[in-house]
Structure formats: C-alpha cells, structure tokens
Amino acid sequence: MTLESDVADLWERYQAGLSAAETTRDDDAVLDAFLEALEAGEVRAAEKTGDDVTSWEANEWVKRGILCNFGLRETEPREYGGVTYYDVLPLRETADLDARGTRNTPNGTVIRRGAYLGSDCIMMSPSFVNMGAYVGDGTLVDSCDTVGSCAQLGEGVKLGANTLIGGVLEPVEDAPVVIEDGVSLGAGCRVTSGFRVGEGSIVGENTLLTPRIPVYDLVEEEVIYGHLPAERRAFTRMVESSVGDHELFEGGAYKPAVVATDVEAETLEATRREDALRE
User: Fold this and answer.
1) DSSP 263
2) Which of 62, 113, 130, 192 could bridge across to 89 with cysteines, CB 3.0–4.6 Å?
3) Cα–Cα distances in Å, from 83 out to 78, 79, 110, 113, 144?
4) Domain containing 156 — which CATH number?
5) DSSP string of 48-74, one letter each residue
6) What is the mean pLDDT of each run of 10 residues along the chain (279 residues)?
7) How many domains does the chain have?
C-alpha cells in the first residue's frame, strides 16, 4: 500500500460516515504519515503540468488527506507559550528549520502542522502558515502575513507586510492560490480564490488579485481573469462599471481592476536593493 492509496481508503470511509471517535491506531498512523510527507515537501496540494502559470492543477488526493486530518481528529486542549488553545492539531515542530537555514522570529510566527518551509526562508512575527501550504526556498513571509491552506509559494518570493495569501481547500478539484518563483507582492496585497501569479511579476501594494476582478494585460492587449502572466508589473486602477447607468449613481460608478504592464528596469532595481536586507 502507498500513502496515496491509504489516504484514498481513509477518504472513502470518511465520506461513508467514519468519525474521529471511530478511527483506529492504523488510521491515525496514516494521518500522521501524511502530515510528515507534507512537511518534508514530498507531496504537494498542487503541481504545475505545463510551462504557463495557468497549467497548475490540484492534487485531489492530497487535499482529501488534509480534509481527513481536519475531520478525523478530535479537538483537544493544547499548550503553546503558556497559553491553552483548542484545535484538532498541534503546531508544527520546527527543529528541522535550523538545518535548512530557515528562521522564524519569536512571539507570533505560527506554523501549523502539514506546512512546508524550504531552505533560507524568513518568517517575521506575527505571521501564520496553514496546513498544506508550501513555501519555497528563500521566500520571505513578512509581519502580519497569512499563507492560507494549500497555497503554493515558489522560490525567492517576497510577501510585503500585511499580505494575505488565501487558502483553497474545497472543492478538492480546485487549484489553490499559486505564487510562482521570484514574485514580489507589495504590502497589503490580497491574493484569493485560487488566483495564480506568474513568475517574476511585481505587484503594487494594496492590490487585490481574485478571479472576479479583471486583469487588463497591456502587454498582450487582452482582458484576462484568474491569473497574472509572468514578468508583469501590476497595480490597481478603477474602471467604469455597468451599474453606473443606474439613476442612483449620479456621475457614474466605478469598480476595481488590475492593470498589468512590462516590468520596468527601475522597478527591478528597487526589488534587488531589498535583497540586501535579507543577507
């Protein structure tokens, strides 16, 4: 039996009504082995199947394993920093981070079980990484950042302070939020609902990226939804809304949109200067 087949069997029994109170030691061993595989980066909630950022696909069996870990464990009192909290899982052990050169500052960096952090990552406090998330080598998770369940962050990603990377757990066939290698997100950005950001893009602060907001790609001269192509500089602008025709909107109404252009040389230089802070 493989881990995937063990999870598939457990998922079928869970869907048929298996409860946390009815699990066996063997079931618990499968749940634990699955979390260990996530934390080691051996399995991931999504994978890229082609060259383009749109080719990311969910690994349904992995997302099912995560749902089993939520649904087939009892909520228990747990201790962290002298505080009792209640959850189905303890926080992730971090002893392995030292060997990877990854650091997390005290008083508020929370890494849940089932999250992967690569080598030379930095987690500033307070920040939170949820189950099933993958944080690639050399990535910076800044203060007040959240990396949601199953989110996939590539190598050398920079999350500005107060940035939200949303989680996508259900339905299992939906790919989670993806931030590819070398992406820089300015402070206060929000990336939600399975949106995908292409490699090397630079996103201005306070930009909302979600499949419901159009991206006006001035490079290819097209309007797209759900992703930002690679090597783009993106920022928020307001465009006319159809509801502006309503008599209640005197003077017109507007809605947010994302404008994407080529990455300019001075923007790249400013991003490189930030690298010195991480040495």
Assistant:
1) P
2) 113
3) 8, 6, 14, 18, 20
4) 2.160.10.10
5) E-SSSGGGEEE-HHHHHHHHHHHHTS-
6) 95 97 96 98 97 96 97 93 90 90 88 96 96 97 97 98 95 94 97 97 96 95 97 91 73 85 67 54
7) 1
